Amino acid sequence: MVSLLVKEKIYVNEVVLGTAFGVIMGPHCANVFDPRHWGSHTNVITLEVMRVVLATGLFAIGVELPPAYLGHHIKGLLVMIIPTMAFGWVIVAGVILALFPGLNFTSALVIAACLTPTDPIICAAIVGGRFAIRHVPENLRHILAAESAANDGLAYPFLSLAIYLTVESSRGVAIGKWLVIGCLYQVVLGAALGALMGLAFCHLMKLSDRLGFMDRESFVAQSLALSIFTIGVVSTIGSDDLLAAFAAGCAVAWDGDFKSHIEGEVFSTVVDLILNCGCFVYIGAWMPFTLFNSPELGITPWRLVLLLLAVLLLRRIPPLLLLYRWVPEISGWREALFSGHFGPMGVGAVFVSTLALSRLPSPQSPPQSQAEYLAATLQVIVSFIVLGSIVIRTCLRLLLEKENH
């Protein structure tokens, strides 16, 4: 009832509103529901909720990009993604190692991998509103949206390498499995399958439309159905379902025909809004506030705050300031600084951390091994960074708008 006032006048989006409402409804306030006390299925539910929301968001970004966008902008996109993610992964791992002495470097790499992706849901909420249209150039909005979608899927290789190094008996076995499974089977096969399914459905929908079998509303419904179908197929065989969803969205809208059929329709926007709001309500209630001060695990508020500041300052800004000359979509150092600052963490970080937790042993109290210690601290650290990222970027946006007025 007050969405226009809140989003377009106060510049607070559904991400912040959903998270705040989740905190209020969660176990630390009203105690209406508590996702962390749903028994042994808590992590499975969290993982699948994040997976569905991410997949629909990634598919939507692929569809909304200009036709054949990846074909024309692949160079700049790869420069923004691979070296930037690699730099942030190693630097953040080094900071984690320094702040949390109970973790070794491999465990720090696992946590840092969860923080490498830029969240596409928060990205869409920020670069798609009136504020962004007024203040952010179109070329920058497109490249940031594409990067946020692609790097969620490309977080898999960083995570899988660190996980294999943690659980395998030797580095040779770990690196071999990473190359074959983490890179070829998950990333390359996942992207290829997503693109093939997107192209196949694109041709099927064109044929059905020419024969008069398909109405306009069905094109909109296919957007949601195809994203869920893609992650269902690809995740079943164990490949990178998030990258597949983005590839399918780009492929199905490659020539612009699909986008022309759904342009002006609000159903997909409403579905995205409902899923996103529900997801951040879930995240707000899921936040483990009581664990943010766990001295027995080496976790204290001051360490978490220092890590948050280091992540915001070092994860993206330095590499993009160094590399922006090789990104045609970024025209100067100011845009590079904005792009470096623009690295929200949210659903993607929660998803990757939950996925990592599913591959680690259940921790005892106290933890009996490095893998158990990692499992006990992983989501506590990641959830604090996610919460801090949402709060700080909202405050910065409000300050910028106040200055512009």
Describe it for me?
75% of the residues lie in helices and 0% in strands. The two termini are 25 Å apart. The mean pLDDT is 84. With 405 residues, the protein is mainly α. It has a domain at 24-33 and 51-165 and 267-404. Helix 3 (42-64) crosses helix 11, helix 6 packs antiparallel against helix 8 (138-153) and helix 11 runs antiparallel to helix 12 (241-252).
Provide the descriptors you would attach to this structure in a database record:
405 residues, mainly alpha, 19 helices, 75% helix, globular
Per-chain topology:
Blueprint: H1 3-9, H2 14-25, H3 42-64, H4 69-99, H5 105-114, H6 120-127, H7 130-135, H8 138-153, H9 155-167, H10 171-210, H11 216-236, H12 241-252, H13 257-262, H14 267-286, H15 301-314, H16 317-323, H17 333-341, H18 347-358, H19 370-404
Helix pairs in contact: 2-14, 3-8, 3-11, 3-12, 3-14, 3-18, 4-5, 4-8, 4-15, 5-9, 5-18, 5-19, 6-8, 8-12, 9-10, 10-11, 10-12, 11-12, 15-19, 16-17, 18-19
